[in-house]
């Protein structure tokens, strides 16, 4: 018996959320195997070494080059059967949850999404997020094969330990036309200049209080000085001030910076679920009663159009830039 972890990757780098899922798998006291869809590379081998994986199964099928959730699920189901996996685990990313939902449907088994803690036992006791992470539920998963996804940033990815590199084996699934009916046909790449929101250590967030697309220049200046990324609330994307790829929250990105500077953002729960993994939150808001104050570590009560330029000026003074 083993635990099979679906590892997502981009340009040879294992996805951070997949490394978190591997960390959870490593705590479950069963041999861990990984499945990677796509081409194996030395970068990927480096990224997956020292992470407690016995075998990496590489599914390098050109039909899976574009994201095809049902086909990926078919590959995972077939591999799990071949390896007698007791548990199949993936990151609680949009893709991980989608593929695992298909795995559940194919196996006719329940799937626990966005798990924050595995408590053990059989039936398996676990804690999972509900309502976009605003509630934690203790649940029991009673199934011959346990299907789980791990909530983003529920655990920190363990640092790689020195040790043997995993064995690498290829796996060729049987895929039908039906499996391949849904696949990504076209990708629109976001603007990759600047610091990536997903990995930024400091994020400057702007909400309705910023007031206009042009006024974001103040936030962008501060972000530039701090080496930070700019993120936004949904009001900002629905106003068309900034693209959806910059949105933080339930229907946007989950961020985990050391510092989140939330400017003119009220702190609706749908926004906060995307930022609650931030180590520190600084709120800049004219309203001392705004809900964001209940999660903020620091607050400046004032007009962001005065406060943000003042912080930038101080950073310039201190750094001499
Ligand atoms: P507001 O709530 O209008 O707050 C503006 C804040 O700016 C206020 O607190 C005000 O005091 C302050 N302010 C105004 N002027 C200034 C000034 N000059 N200086 C300083 N402060 C000022 N929202 C998200 O962000 N992300 C999501 O992913 C998301 N998903 C959603 C999913 C669903 C299903 C639903 C129903 C909603 C979702 N929302 C999401 C929307 C969410 O409920 C809120 O409506 C939204 O987050 C509010 O954005 P905001 O804080 O920018 O605006």
Written description of the protein model:
Helices cover 26% and strands 27% of the residues. With 321 residues, it is an alpha/beta fold. α3 (69-82) crosses α4 and α5 runs parallel beside α8. The protein is elongated and about 60 Å long. The termini are far apart. Flavin-adenine dinucleotide is lined by residues 207-209, 233-235, 247-252, 264-266, 268, 270-271, 274, 284-287, 290, 303-305.
Order of helices and strands: EEEHEHEHEHEEEEEEHEHEHEEH
Instruction: List each distinct ligand once.
Output: flavin-adenine dinucleotide
Number of helices: 8
- Total E-strand runs: 16
Characterize the overall form.
elongated
In percent, how much strand structure appears in the residues?
Answer: 25-35%
Question: What secondary-structure arrangement, pairings included, does this model have?
Answer:
Blueprint: E1 2-7, E2 9-10, E3 13-14, H1 16-26, E4 32-37, H2 42-48, E5 53-59, H3 69-82, E6 85-91, H4 94-107, E7 111-120, E8 124-130, E9 135-141, E10 146-150, E11 167-170, E12 202-206, H5 216-226, E13 229-232, H6 234-238, E14 259-263, H7 269-272, E15 280-285, E16 298-301, H8 304-319
Parallel strand pairs: 1-4, 1-6, 4-5, 5-11, 6-10, 7-10, 12-13, 12-14, 14-15, 15-16
Antiparallel strand pairs: 2-3, 7-8, 8-9
Helix pairs in contact: 3-4, 5-8
The structure holds flavin-adenine dinucleotide.
Residues 207-209, 233-235, 247-252, 264-266, 268, 270-271, 274, 284-287, 290, 303-305 line the site of flavin-adenine dinucleotide (FAD).
């Amino acid at each position: 018996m083993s635990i099979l972890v679906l590892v997502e990757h981009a340009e040879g780098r294992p996805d951070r959320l997949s490394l978190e899922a591997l960390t959870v798998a490593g705590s479950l006291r069963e041999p861990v195997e990984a499945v990677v869809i796509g081409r194996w590379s030395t970068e990927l081998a480096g990224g997956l070494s020292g992470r407690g994986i016995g075998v990496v199964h590489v599914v390098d099928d050109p039909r899976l080059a574009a994201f095809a959730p049902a086909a990926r699920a078919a590959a995972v189901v077939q591999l799990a059967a071949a390896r007698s996996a007791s548990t199949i685990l993936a990151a609680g990313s949009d893709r991980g949850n989608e593929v695992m939902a298909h795995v559940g449907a194919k196996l006719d088994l329940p799937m626990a999404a966005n798990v924050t803690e595995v408590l053990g036992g059989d039936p398996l006791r676990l804690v999972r997020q509900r309502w976009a992470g605003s509630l934690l539920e203790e649940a029991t998963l009673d199934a011959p094969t346990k299907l789980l996804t791990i909530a983003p940033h529920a655990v920190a990815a363990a640092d790689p330990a020195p040790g043997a590199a995993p064995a690498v084996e290829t796996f060729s699934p049987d895929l039908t036309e039906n499996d391949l009916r849904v696949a990504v046909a076209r990708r629109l790449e976001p603007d990759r200049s600047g610091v990536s929101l997903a990995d930024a250590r400091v994020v400057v967030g702007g909400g309705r209080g910023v007031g206009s697309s042009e006024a974001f220049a103040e936030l962008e200046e501060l972000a530039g000085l701090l080496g930070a990324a700019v993120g936004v609330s949904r009001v900002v994307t629905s106003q068309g001030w900034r693209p959806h790829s910059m949105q933080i929250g339930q229907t946007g990105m989950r961020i985990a910076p050391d510092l989140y500077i939330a400017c003119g953002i009220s702190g609706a729960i749908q926004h906060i679920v995307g930022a609650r993994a931030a180590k520190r939150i600084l709120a800049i808001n004219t309203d001392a009663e705004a809900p964001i104050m209940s999660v903020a570590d620091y607050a400046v009560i004032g007009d962001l159009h005065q406060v943000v330029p003042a912080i930038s000026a101080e950073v310039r003074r201190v750094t001499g830039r």
